[in-house]
Amino acid sequence: MWSKTVGRSLFDSKFVLSLNMEILQNDLLLRAARGEQVERVPVWMMRQAGRILPEYRAVREQAGSFIQLATNPELAAEVTIQPVDILGVDAAIIFSDILVVPEAMGLPYIMEERVGPIFPEVIKSMADVDKLEVANPHEKLAYVLDAIKIVKAELNGRVPLIGFAGAPFTLLCYMLEGRGSKTFSKAKKYLYSDAALSHALLQKITDTTIAYLKAQIAAGANLVQIFDSWAGILSPAQYKEYSLPYIAQICDAITEVPVTVFAKGAFFAREDMAKLNCETIGLDWNMDIAESRRLIGANKTLQGNLDPCVLYASFDEIKKQTRSMLDQFGGQRHIANLGHGVYPDTDPEKVKCFIETVKEYSI
Ligand code: CP3
């Protein structure tokens, strides 16, 4: 195993840096992402750092608001590590939000209780796009980078740390629409009526995101995930024009660590996603596992994809559904996860049951 890892590091330019990297006590996630043999399937959960844990809610209360928590590096680090200690997951994900990028570019958001994020100002014209800046993450997002450094010191090599960013298209949705929406029809209107504005905005977000992810990696992130949460509202042709080329730019630019692309609802793009310069593709629960493997091929790791609603079922049913998912993925080149973020009203004991079931499964 050691010689295989080092061999890869020496000959595969993408991982040359891994020779200089810290020794991790648990590197299952990174080995699975790189397609190396694992003795068991690694597991973590999207939105694991959040409201499912009473310990999170206590720290959030102490901070005052979501944004005060996210911009306080010590407290953000504390809630990042909670799921590692309490749930036993195989990776931490830095506590932040995808919307810090628009804010760094000059478009601030507020987080309204029970509503979600709102942008008081939205992008309406090319002049508005021109006013946005390609943000320097060391100036505008230093609080995230500081939180990463604290997490790394406190984890002390126990598990890898995942960094992340929103996909340019998903961020465009919020920047044009101003808030969450089922259809994002105000945002989509621009794709059909002002392609030039849409592409100019996507490129500025992409440039900021590349600099931001590289800064997260320099601060200590061991793997980065791109969340394209609203991919599923686009037609296949629009996805090819407005999302994939920008994700491809990011994947091509990130040569330091493995990259995961999670495009919720983009079942129609799986063959194209297989061509991305990334190691892992995230699946949601609508995507059939065997069909996804066939469309994506053998050279990518797959992540997912249990329906988060399974965690409302009995302990026995959770074990059954989790094992069935693991059987279908086949043990190797798989990172166990839910098919989207865990719902906030999920019982932490049910979450632990899911995680334990993955850890006890023999491959
Ligand atoms: O544990 C983790 O996954 C890390 C933390 C994380 C948050 N947001 C914290 C958060 C991550 C990775 C995100 C990503 C994110 N944020 C996405 C992409 C992933 C996805 O779910 O599709 C999106 C679309 C957002 C935007 C966003 N942030 C929305 C729509 C909301 C409101 C809905 C909700 O879940 O409350 C948020 C708020 C948010 N981001 C919370 C947390 C813990 C809840 C706010 C709170 O604690 O008060």
Describe the fold and architecture.
- The chain has one domain: TIM Barrel (Alpha-Beta Barrel).
- Mean pLDDT is 94; it is low at 1-13 and 16-20.
- The protein is 49% helix and 11% strand.
- The protein has 18 helices and nine strands.
- The protein has 363 residues and is an alpha/beta fold.
- α3 packs antiparallel against α5, α5 (73-87) runs parallel beside α9 (142-155) and α10 crosses α12 (195-219).
- It has helices at 2-11, 28-34, 54-63, 66-70, 73-87, 100-105, 126-131, 137-140, 142-155, 168-177, 185-193, 195-219, 236-242, 244-253, 270-273, 289-296, 315-329, 348-360; strands spanning 92-93, 110-112, 116-118, 161-166, 223-228, 259-263, 280-282, 301-306, 334-338.
- The two termini are 17 Å apart.
- The strands form two sheets. The chain has a seven-stranded parallel beta sheet with strand order 1-4-5-6-7-8-9, sandwiched between helices.
- α15 links the parallel β6 (259-263) and β7 (280-282).
- Bound molecules: coproporphyrinogen III.
- Coproporphyrinogen III (CP3) is lined by residues 46-51, 60, 66, 93, 95, 97-99, 111, 116-117, 164, 180, 227, 229, 341.
